[in-house]
Input
Amino acid sequence: MDQFDEQLQAFLDYLAIERRYAVNTITAYRQDLLQLKEFLQKDGGTADLKQLDYHHARYFLVFLQNKGLSKSSIARKVAALKTFCRFLQQDEVIEDNSVALLSTPKKPKRLPKVATETTLSDFFDELSKREDPTSLRDQAIFELLYSSGLRVSELAALNVSDFSVEGRILRIVGKGKKERLVPMGRKAIAAIEKYLQQGRAFFLKDPDNQALFLNHRGGRLTIRGIEYLLESYIKKGALHFQMTPHVFRHSFATHLLDNGMDIRIIQELLGHESLSTTQIYTEVSKAKIQHVYFKAHPRA
Output
């Protein structure tokens, strides 16, 4: 293992243990920095970290732009590089961190996709007509995603012990392994109770399995499995809206904001570290107001 790989591994361990970065972020940063190494070694170059400076970083940025990468992808790679160089300076591998001067491309602001209250209500009404174990499980999943604004990864990680009817709350371990408590609506609670009483036993193969949501093999339902479930409902026409599980989270936040909830409370419920992340939902509400205005006003 050469110096670059040794420092890269130490950096990834630091992100996982001390900074508690999400696994997906660590994996992405690893790929980004290995791409940097490959770029530095191109045409007989060297990946000597002591020689890594602002100019190398700028050339790498141009290389990425010429490859046609999106601004979002480039911004993440720049973040990986700058975080890595800060770590190298702290570890005294490099003396000066000129890479810190590198500017990050501004990502285009994309409004999150949101389903209307009517669309979701119709979907849940359709689901509630079925009483088979699979439908009971799926209704509990989608009701909970919308009721509590969970990330799909958070929902997939839930155990039966995380569910409390009495407290009407869930204990969630989110990004950075930070815990938060989120409330559940009565519809979600009713759906989960029904699934636990009449549906979960159908999937359960191992009595010691504590996963709340199970697949047909008796294992924990994965993120991809939940995405596949939603795709199947879209294909069957039960949901007349192209959406991913994350749209339930976007809809949760937007509908709360539309109905008067303080944005700082929404920030807490979503588990956002920064209020600026949550404020994107105010833009969605503004866009909705404009749409309704121009559609309704006779002289708009």
